[in-house]
């Protein structure tokens, strides 16, 4: 990416951050919601099906991976609102790098995701969860989580470009929940029917959760899943990143 494109993307990132400064409520909801889910499963409905050892040591890495899929509606709503109000058309009339609006949007949301990981990790520590891996392994786990989040954001951006209207975002959002929970974030696949366990194990979020558990030394971690936790998000990015940029480029035609 050229310096010109980076400058334009940073300008769009600052625009998104300015919106959050004027409307902090949306940012707070996005940060608090994963914490509420973690507390709910840790204290109310967490059963630890098929999990050996401390369930919270299994739950927290799973929730970190699960929340990388949630919150996409915020990204999608922001993109579709700009489309509906003609804001993107005005940006396209300016001498800007193609796709800078989308890259800036994803960069701002990645900053929010990183902040969310810090908060959720802190809450996990307050619940008694501990990292048993080395600092390098911890940073590797964070990198895998953010890589998954980046891929999921571009899926959301692509779907927003397809939907085009904020009213259609809710229909897409409904699909995120079953895909998110159809993973090993909350329960081990071994406790599920064979066919369901197979589907769960192939879920990209399950690959990331398993790799993170392995790096952090918690129950449910299995060696050899780090490569899958890298390949899956990169594969999704290879499909949805260029698709979103191409659809953005065709908006005026």
TrEMBL record:
The chain crosses the membrane at residues 27-46, 58-79, 100-126, 138-161, 226-245. Keywords: Antibiotic resistance, Cell membrane, Membrane, Transmembrane, Transmembrane helix, Transport. It is a multi-pass membrane protein. It holds the Pfam family ABC2_membrane. It is found in: Cell membrane. Its main location: membrane. InterPro entries: ABC2_TM, ABC2_TM_bact-type, ABC_2_transport, T7SS_ABC-Transporter. This is Transport permease protein. It comes from Streptomyces longisporus.
């Amino acid at each position: 990416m050229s310096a010109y494109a980076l400058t334009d993307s940073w300008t769009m990132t600052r625009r998104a951050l300015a919106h959050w400064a004027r409307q902090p409520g949306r940012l707070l909801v996005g940060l608090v919601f994963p914490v509420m889910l973690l507390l709910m499963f840790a204290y109310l409905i967490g059963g630890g099906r098929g999990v050996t050892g401390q369930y919270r040591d299994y739950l927290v890495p799973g929730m970190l991976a699960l929340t990388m899929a949630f919150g996409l509606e915020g990204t999608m709503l922001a993109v579709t609102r700009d489309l509906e109000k003609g804001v993107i058309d005005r940006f396209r009339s300016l001498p800007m790098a193609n796709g800078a609006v989308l890259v800036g949007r994803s960069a701002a949301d990645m900053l929010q995701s990183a902040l969310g990981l810090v908060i959720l990790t802190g809450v996990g520590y307050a619940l008694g969860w501990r990292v048993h891996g080395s600092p390098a392994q911890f940073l590797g786990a964070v990198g895998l989580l953010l890589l998954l989040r980046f891929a999921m954001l571009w899926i959301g951006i692509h779907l927003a470009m397809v939907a085009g209207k904020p009213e259609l975002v809710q229909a897409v959002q409904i699909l995120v929940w079953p895909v998110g929970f159809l993973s090993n974030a909350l329960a081990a696949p071994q406790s599920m029917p064979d066919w369901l366990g197979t589907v769960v194990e192939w879920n990209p979020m399950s690959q990331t959760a398993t790799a993170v558990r392995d790096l952090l030394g918690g129950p449910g971690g299995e060696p050899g899943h780090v490569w899958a936790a890298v390949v899956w998000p990169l594969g999704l990015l290879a499909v949805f990143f260029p698709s979103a940029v191409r659809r953005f480029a065709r908006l005026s035609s």
